[in-house]
Each structure stands twice: as C-alpha cells, then as structure tokens.
C-alpha cells in the first residue's frame, strides 16, 4: 500500500517512531539502571511495573477527555507526556522519584497507545488494516533499532551517563510531536464516535482475549528481561544487542505477518500464536543456556506480533461508532491483571522464577481455548461460535 505525504497513514507512522524511540530507550536501560543506580530487587521492580500499568488500567478515562479535545490533538499531548517522563527518569535518584517519573511516562504512553489504536481502526480501511498494522510494527522496530544502537554506542563505547541517554530518548519524541502538530492538518472523523463508555455483551470474546493478552504480556515485559540480567548477567550492551536483533527480525517478518493474517484469518492466526507462546513460556521456566534464552526472547516477540489479529477481529465485529470508546475500555481490560501481576509475581520470583513462567504458559493455554470459539469469518452478528449475544 502506498502512503501519501500529509496522509493519516504517515502521521500514524511518524507518531509511532516518536513513541518507539522513547519507549525503547526507557526499556533498554530499565533493568540495568534500576539495579545499578537505584539498587532494585525483583520486589521493587514488581512495584514499579505495577505502578507503570495503573494508567493503562485507567485508559477508559480517555473517553471523558475526548469530550473536550479531538483525538488527534490528544495523541500529540500524550506523546509529549511520554517524552517528558523519559527525560525526567534520567534525573531520579530514589525509589519514589523513579516511581513518579515512570507514572508520568506511563500516562503518556498508555493514552497514546489507546488513541493511536483507535485512530488506526477509524482511518484505515478494513481490507488494508492487517497489512498496515504489520507496517506499523516494522516501523516501530526500525525506530527501536536506532534507539538500541544509540544506547549501545553511547553507553558502551563512549560511557555516556544514563541521564543523557534518557534526555536524548525523550527529546526526540517531543521534537516529533512538534513537527506533527505543525505539519499535519486535523483529519475529519469518518464516523462520529460515541462519547461514553461502551460495554457490549456481543464483544465478550474480544474482552476476554484482551484480558489474557495483558496478563501474559506482563510476565514477558516484567520478567523476561529481568531474567536475562539477573540469571545470565547480561550487560547494558548485551541487552541492547538483544533488542536490536529482535527489532531487526520484526522489520522483516511483521509486514508478512499482517498479510498472512489477512489471508488465513484471525482464528487460525491466534490459535497459532497461543500454541507457540505456551511452549515459549515453558521454555523460559527451565532454560539454562543464555543462547536458548535469547532465542526464546526473539521468538516471544514474533508471536506477540500476531496479536494484530485481535485488533482486526474487533474491527470486523464492531459498530464503527464504538471504536474510540472501546479502545479505552479494551486497554483498561488489558491492564486489569497488569496492576497486580508484577507485584504478586515479583514476590513469587523471589521463591521460584520458574513458577512465574509456568503461570505464563497456563495463561497461553487458556487463551488458546478462548480462540477456538472464534468463527472463521467474524463479523457483526457472528462474533463467536458459542455464547452469542444480540
């Protein structure tokens, strides 16, 4: 698909770049910064990650903000908060200030992801959405490569302090926001969005899969990287190279995943994803080789990319006027488990890291059972095989 200048597709991709660079810098440095500078253990990391997910849990509040401001403008403001929070992280010295900077960053990140997902489903035609979302993932990965390379070069080769790396990561995001604000006009809404919270019984399978997705993802986001640092003693440079390799693979594979989802359908794609994730989480539980751990980490990311299918499934079954409201609601549902899983499993980690990942495997199996209830041709009125509601 061709992308024109000053088109909504280009705007989405540019905002994705800004978000990806800030997030990649924050994520790349997180475990080493927390352990080296703030003396975190798994328990404190669990607390921080739970606090980080609170704004995601409150993502439904975006619908109230949209009563006063256009989605596109709120996307800009959210990106600026994300960049500002990353910058502030470079100046923290205590647990409490680390938590505060993380919350600011997280408010911007989660509001942006909610709105960006909503705008994508509104602006992009259904027959092009899977392919475009694959391109979004590839763009995010390319931006992440730039960020990871920068961290590796500046930290490892030039011993640049954490503060300057966070300043660069957040500053790039804010610069992109200012450019987009000036360069792009406000795009009209194709369908006037409902300005209230929407929960529909016929969307129940989508809600359930979102909940399980959020629960599983927390196991990966919080503990997979921590495993690399704590068990295998990965340095900042090694984490950078790992994330760099992962992003490079995604650039090649993600657009193809989008096209394959369009070809084979959401049901088959999600079943394949959940079977793969079950084996990957089980692998994390017993891995003793750093090389195998790296393979699992990269494969994990690839399987999570198939979650594009969950977005296109919802686009096919949803009332177009529900998309903005449902984006906030689904983000909240996705983050319900995220509020308590990092803290609870952070404590479990102190007893047995393997149990944490075995729980992730169990979550993937439950997701598989839910996906089997998805019809091959989802549409409004044909959302599920069993348990239909009008």
Write the layout of secondary structure elements.
Layout: H1 8-36, H2 42-57, H3 62-65, H4 71-89, H5 95-123, H6 126-157, H7 162-183, H8 204-232, H9 236-264, H10 266-286, H11 290-305, H12 308-317, H13 323-351, H14 353-371
Our Rg estimate from Cα atoms comes to 20 Å
Number of strands: 0
Poorly predicted segments: none
Work out the helicity level. over 70%
Helical element count?
A: 14
What is the mean predicted local confidence, pLDDT?
Answer: 87
Order of helices and strands: HHHHHHHHHHHHHH
Shape: globular
The CA-CA distance between the termini, in Å, is 36 Å
Structural class, by secondary structure, is mainly alpha
Largest sheet, described in full? Answer: none
Residues in β-strands, percent = under 5%
In brief:
The protein is mainly alpha-helical.
Describe this structure in words.
By secondary structure, the protein is mainly alpha-helical. Helix content is 78%, strand content 0%. It is built from 14 helices and no strands. Helix 1 packs antiparallel against helix 5, helix 1 runs parallel beside helix 6 and helix 8 runs antiparallel to helix 11. The longest helix has 32 residues. The relative contact order is 0.16. The mean pLDDT is 87.
Features:
390 residues, mainly alpha, 14 helices, globular
